[in-house]
Amino acid sequence: MLLAAPLQQAPSAGQIITLLVNTVRVLSSSRVAQPCWESRVLPVPDPRQVPRNAGLINRVPAISVHRLFGDRCPPVSLSCFQTPQRIPYYEAVRQEFTSAKVGDSFGPTWETCWFKVELSIPPAWAGREVHFVWESDGEGMVWRDAQPVQGLTKEGEKTSYVLTSSLKEMEPHSLTLDVHELLVDLEVLLDMAQLLGEENQRSFQALYAANQMVNVCDVTDPSTFPAARDLAAAIFSQRNGESQHTIHAMGHCHIDSAWLWPYEETIRKCARSWVTVVHLMECNPELTFACSQAQQFEWVRSWYPGLYAQIQDFVAKGQFIPVGGTWVEMDGNLPSGESMVRQFLQGQRFFQEQFGRICSEFWLPDTFGYSAQLPQLMRGCGIRRFLTQKLSWNLVNAFPHHTFFWEGIDGSRVLTHFPPGDSYGMHGRVEEMLKTVKNNKDKGRVNHSAFLFGFGDGGGGPTQKMLDRMKRMSDTDGLPRVQISTPDRLFSALEKESSQLCTWVGELFLELHNGTYTTQAQIKKGNRECERILHDVEVLSTLAVARGGVFQYPASELQRLWRLLLLNQFHDVLPGSCIQLVVEDALQYYGEIRRVGTRLQEEAVQSFCRELLQPEAGSAEGTLVLNTLPWERTEVISRPQPTGTETLALVTVPSMGYAIVREPLLSPSPVAVRKQENGSIVMENGVITACLDMMGHLTSLQLVDSARESVPDGCYANQFALFDDVPLYWDAWDVMDYHLETRKPVTTLLKPLEITLAGGLRGSASFSLQIGESSTLIQEIILDAMCPYLRFLTQVEWKEAHKFLKVEFPVQVRSTNATYEIQFGHLQRPTHWNTSWDWARFEVWAHKWLDLSEHGFGVALLNDCKYGASAHGNILSLSLLRAPKSPDATADITHHQFTYAVMPHLGSFQDAGVIQRAYNLNFPLHVFPASSAQHEAWSAFSVSSPAVVLETVKQAEDRPEAVVVRLYEAHGSTVIAWLQTALPVKEAMLCDLLEQPVGQGHLPLEQRGIRLSFTPFHVLSVLLVLRQ
Ligand SMILES: [Zn+2]
Fold it and tell me: What sequence ranges are listed for the domain Glycoside hydrolase family 38 central (predicted)?
């Protein structure tokens, strides 16, 4: 069969060459997809020829690449087959191909069409460069001799594949290259003439040189070309002075791991883009290419091993440069602290394993804001340098720096650079170089900038033309010095100049895309739940291993599940700015984590609680209650009964351990629920008293001991409000400040508040509302014995278009700042709109809680899966649901369930335990039927200070005999904490976030435990080696 026939790299005239091209139409804008697509296929090998219009100066930039091609000839044969699947090459070649012709249409979108093309180059073209030209509306890959050789995209300016640079059997001649070079010369000179400005004499020198070139160049006589080129070279070789700004150009190709295309297509996008980069590197040994996202390398490694081997060679040569250090370019706001650590842990370990080194810079050019905890996490993962540019998208305030030190909430600093051209997809044009210099906000402090060139988002990467443009600007008077460089060379230069740099403290908040904290609520919920599941699997599995027996820590399964979770944290998936196909994949991955995670939890519990779980013959049933959080908890649980019913019980469980419950505790103060004459309902539990009206509004919330009221007179808390939500630019991404002007309180009652549980250990009442035209909400308001917060279990049937649902809590607290939980800590944001920086944060993000406190009193709002929030004046709002229609017309139109809670408190939120209560809400106790025999309660870990949270307990990577525990200071205080453990610890040492030991050797094991010293928001990891 022809396809299998070996082919020489440089073909001879007349020889039949067979290529396979697979083409797929993908979405490239967030507009609704057309049902069908046209594919204009022009498979014609063409020699480059003199363009007729090369001499007309004003037409040069407009000259299409096709004017470079003169002679052309049709293919010998063209055949195809179409499939909805993304199949590998070896499967494709076995299919039956049917005849096709140039100009045929194929579709719909997402179908892949494989074309077999047979070519024969005319003998008359001997010695010339011969191109295979392919134009279709899709993205394609050319396969030759069963290997991918070239990606094709019209958008990425790649529509031809060079079959040979010099057809055999004659001396090569350089006519075609000369033409190409002349065109680039003219383009750069014209840009200089137009853009340097009339006050700059270099613009006139460039214009006159270009004019002279046209005069000496006779398009029909190639012998005139060298003289024209000499004129250009004379301008380009006039050097800059020593002080000129240096631009560090690096090839780049931003590939969204999923966005307007599903994950599976991204695998092929990576292959298409990177095979082209490799080919470009073969011809341009100076080309460098910065490439992030370990997941994408892993995809290419498993699906395109031949290409991956070539990439490895270029990595070894220092041209293909892995950057970023993370598994994917994740969202910078919503992943938990531990998730962010795992992004680096999985990423850096992959880069170390595959390429022998970790990345030294964090690379996140396209993410929608950056948590103030990131500097510390970067430093803990071997990274002191950070590159992004997204803050240039700020709608309100221009960020004041391009190169600066960024200081996180704990005081850690990283050198941060925003390429001043404000883009990660430059084309090597004069205009972009001038913008880079002009725009730089830190002139005088630094004289070096990054410049990332290459088509991005959907892939494509750098082109030869971009490189050729920049070659002319390497050191030309009037233009910045443009060097092909590397991230390391750039940051090393910036470090040398860093003595005068400014410092930005706190979060890098993006003043745009603030709807991404709320859009696609099921993805947000999946993320929060799966973070909890993996936390619990790790804790329980570690305890199971430490308790001995045959239990094997499920390291490889956990790695697989973590990688799924981390992948879904990609910056267009977790933010919800993706198409429906991606949402389906993401929800399926969460389903997989839930399913396997639940099994792993059960296996761990079965292993280390085996005797407890086996009821003895004739004994009454007991209950095993497991607590995966590092503090003792007293809570109401629901106990399954042998009859299939459930009963409530109040239990106390030690920190990170278990208790067997036979006789539940009696509550010192049972919950009482009373209906008043006016229909309102009062719920109290000895800690708080809540009064609710028939609409479910909270009209009063008091702390029993102090009688301090939380709800201002005449105000309603737990008030739902609906807003018109029609953003100007990006539907799924943005919520604009003007939506606040359209507030409509939800007032249509479907079912008034009724008592559903009369009290005892738990009291509850429920009601339902009509929201908007056709959505409904049912809420159960729950108060448990001894619990300091009131819980709102909410179900919404959501069928809106461009509406935003929030719930509001006006509180009787005055403060100019509210506090929001972030990764491993918290920060404050203003409650007023004094300056543009303040009002630009009308919609912000938080993790499990936010709090508004004055001296001695405050109110916190907790949640189990929400991220969008705001605090304006004395009103705390939680953002619940949005209904954007693009890029997913079905976004959020479904059933939703979520819980939030309100907790009034005396003293500070730290001393009142808001942080711990928010954890409790998110990490329910695990309950199993068990033996009723006498068993001591058991605690594996505890920490002496309430300021310190033991977040993570896991087996060390590659060290089955060691456990890693991660703790952080959560109050914002300097504190000593003692870590106690029942595990058989042989030695303990501090380690970094990559689990490498740091500092001076071992931590002493003392009677009180291991002494750990913290500064505010400090994250510490400890490696505990266990006795076997
Ligand atoms: Zn992106």
Answer: 511-590
